[in-house]
Amino acid sequence: MAEAIDIRALNERIERESTFITNLMTGMDQVIVGQKHLVESLLIGLLSDGHILLEGVPGLAKTLAIKTLASLIDAKYSRIQFTPDLLPADVIGTMIYSQKEEVFLPKKGPIFANFVLSDEINRAPAKVQSALLEAMQERQVTLSTQTFDLPRPFLVMATQNPIEQEGTYPLPEAQVDRFMLKVIIDYPKIDEEKKIIRMNISGQSFNVKPIVSSEDIINAQKVVREVYLDEKIEQYIADIVFATRYPDQYGLPELKDLIGFGGSPRASINLALAARSYAFIKRRGYVIPEDVRAVAHDVLRHRIGLTYEAEASNTTSEEIISKILNKVEVP
């Protein structure tokens, strides 16, 4: 009975604390037509303190969505356009010699911001990606012998074009794993497309003003970690991730030859965190299996390595995740 009261109290608290989510979504809706899944995913990343990778063809409002979200929050925003000739110093900064003071002084790069939009991240070579890795994982940057902490909240929101396009490099596995979510953006529906045309040809522009402070976001991130996650849900998350590693143990022997490697423990952690954030967005103080299923594709799609057999038979990680979700027993 005590636990039931706790849940009720927690539910009421989450209800109160999550009111700003509605304001953020309303602000996003003024600028972005449709793309509800994209907006929700950005909020999940923000609340979970996790980085996001958005993939889709050019022109689907990926950059606009990230920029709008950053404008709604009173925080520092920077954009890095990734190109093949980009150098690590262009991202993290460098040490510059001051003749006046006769010492090397840090000149901080655009990574020193709360929201970093890494546009077309897969157009830059590996040495630039390795400079990003420390920032994404450790939330710090090393220039020469000095280490500098990055501001909080710190969120890398990267966009990439589908790999088939010319002049793109596949991101290293270790870096892809650092992204909490990989979200695939699709074309808008036809009535949304008509609305987009109307908005753009009318010259109508929205002046987006900050409605939330960065402190509000940091507090919300703490509250999200208090969302109740039952042991049964924990088991469900572990089962889903283990099914990506040992599919034959979960009655899916046909997937064994299609999966090169399954999700790492980071997959389990991020699945739990994303499910908590999703519950918070839905203004609930506890996680239900539907929350886990809602975020599973975005958390797992970039963490499953496909074998040559899978590629030869045109099997995608999406299909593998769907089969696993249909097979693993829901608590």
Q: Sketch the topology as an H/E string, one letter per element.
A: HHHEHEEHEEEHEEEHEHEHHEHHEHH
Helix content: 40-55%
Backbone CA Rg: 21 Å
H/I helix tally: 14
Label the structural class: alpha/beta
Main sheet strand line-up: 3-6-9-1-10
Name the quaternary structure.
single chain
- Tell me about the largest β-sheet: 5 strands, parallel
Overall average residue pLDDT:
84
Low-confidence stretches: none
What's the total number of strands?
13
Span between termini: 21 Å
Q: What does it look like?
A:
The structure is a single chain. This protein is of the alpha/beta class. The chain is 48% helix and 17% strand. The chain has a 5-stranded parallel sheet with strand order 3-6-9-1-10. A two-stranded parallel ribbon has the order 2-11. A hairpin with a 4-residue loop joins β4 and β5. α3 (36-48) packs across α11 (265-281). The model has no long low-confidence stretch (mean pLDDT 84).
Summarize the structure.
This protein has 331 residues and is α/β, with parallel strands linked by helices.
Strand-helix topology:
Layout: H1 2-17, H2 19-31, H3 36-48, E1 51-55, H4 62-72, E2 73-74, E3 77-81, H5 88-92, E4 93-98, E5 103-108, E6 115-119, H6 126-138, E7 140-143, E8 146-149, E9 155-160, H7 173-178, E10 179-184, H8 190-201, E11 212-213, H9 214-224, H10 231-245, E12 259-261, H11 265-281, H12 289-300, E13 305-306, H13 308-312, H14 317-327
Parallel strand pairs: 1-9, 1-10, 2-11, 3-6, 6-9
Antiparallel strand pairs: 4-5, 7-8, 12-13
